[in-house]
Amino acid sequence: MNINEWQFREDKVGSKRLSLLLQSLPYSAIAQRIANQIKNIGFRPAKGDKEAKDKKRAEFYFSVDSETLDLFFNGSQGYRAQYYLDPERGIESNRFVIDLLKGKLIEAANRSHQTILSLEQVEKSLECKSAKIWINENHSTLDQTSHDADEIVALKTLRWVEALRQVLAAWDRGQRPDPPIKDKALLGLQAPEGKCLVVFGGWLDNEDKEFVVPSKIERGRHIHDYGFS
Length: 229
Description:
This protein has one domain (10-226). The protein is 45% helix and 13% strand. The protein contains eleven helices and six strands. A four-stranded antiparallel β-sheet has the order 1-2-4-3, covered by helices on one side. Helix 3 packs parallel to helix 6 (87-111), helix 5 (79-85) packs across helix 11 (219-226) and helix 6 packs across helix 11. It starts with 9 loop residues before the first helix and ends with a helix. 38% of the residues are buried. The mean pLDDT is 96.
């Protein structure tokens, strides 16, 4: 990623953090740091509802160093930056880090006493193309309610800024943005901090085949266009 395209508001992130986020550390090295630091792995087999009714998936929650998470989720060479460059590159980067973590995640599942998913189903769920890693939104500084862009926006990536401009213009007219998913730019332009990440495996149907919920079919494109999905 050309750092000229990946800019921050220094008044929001501060000079020390800005230096961290603009490091040229390769994505592969950032992903390896996550694999080296992963700890406190929690495993939860999930049963779907709404779009994923009657489906099951493996869910994992774990912690890493806060600076590593910042580099991974917000940095100029990190996870979302890969999607910014190209959706397919983001999808490949997502698979790369899940594959690095898969062994430790399966070990954690194997230590659990749940009966919802077999170990084979856990592995299948993690190997689904729709499996994903993400920040644990509820254990981060992500503001999911404010519409005050000046208060919460920290990133200044041009594509996402333009999307947000269109969202705010629509709201000023008393309308919803078109498409409505565009309002995710208000989240995408934040740079949330935290120590917790999640890996959600793909949903499995009753025949253990992958099921992708309709709202996430274009996940890669949504992160590319708005920074969030």
